[in-house]
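Worked Example 4.2. Consider the chain below.
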Amino acid sequence: MPIALRLALTLASAVAGVFVAKKLKLPVPFMIGAMLGVAVFNILTGEAWFHKEVKTFTQSVSGAYIGLSLTRRDLKNIKQLIAPTVVMVICFLGFTTGVGLVLFKVFKLDPATSFLVAIPGGVTEISLMSYEMGADPAIVSFLQTFRVFAVYLIFPAMITKTREKVGIEETEALDTSDDGKRDYFIDRFIPDNDAARQIMTAVIGVIGGLIGKATGLPAGTLSFAMISVILVHINSSKLHLERKYKRYVQVLSGTLIGLSISMDTVRSFGKIVLPALSLIFFYVAANYIISWAMAKTGKIDYISSMFASAPGGASDMALIATEIGGDSPKIALLQIIRLISCYTIYPMWTKLLIGWLA
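Applying the procedure from the previous section yields the following structure tokens:
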């Protein structure tokens, strides 16, 4: 089959998968749908094709979106949350190590896959790391997606029950005042045109991603793209990427992962049911323990700590907290910090652990 036809059918399968995923209201439908659509096409025909170098662009733009989530005001507020931040990052580092070892030793997953599925980051971003770390993208994506399902299904009810028992303690509020309009030097070189601003943001992310890729560091593409955008974003008021374009990035990511799924992969899925259930048990237990440790710092209450350390989306957890109860600004900021650590600190630590087990 000609490459052009294979590419067209692969993209058509991705689009069809997204349509079905949206109808079924699956989490992260643009990525999961594209992945499932391409996977089905590849399993049935073996003809799915997509240029592998697209993953560099996909990781770079994903990093740009993460970088845009951190503002100058967030950096100022981090000073108030240093103690719970350090506790959270160290505890999750220990969690990733312990759970990864269990998945490797008990369930016989390969080391890279074992540690990556334990990292509490975004489904798209962690799945993309699979290619660089030598993990199984299909298993990583499946277990990370299962984790997202479980978080939104279990954690709100679990935290509600806990709140009824312990209530919410008052702690120091974050500074939510607006710094006002600043005259940034960098803004002189960025046009006011919205399209130009978005192109500039993507270019900064891609340049950072290419530098990161050249370093050869674990998750270097995504983390350097993210850091590049953060450095410019906190010194500019013009960087911007519309959220709708993130959907296209997720479709590309899902397509790349779908290419790695074959009939042999499907046959192996039965082996990861117990690892998936075990993973959720560990996450629930870790949430209680990490939240308790964070609350002991006195800078954040226990319920807000549970939301902040829940391995879901930053905006989603903060939004749920407004209904159940919790300090939403602190939750959102700590969630962002957790995600950033997942794309910078944890991949390097994971690489060291893989080398140790090899």
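The CA atoms of residues 78 and 333 lie 8 Å apart. The chain has one domain: 3-357. Compare this with Example 4.1 before moving on.
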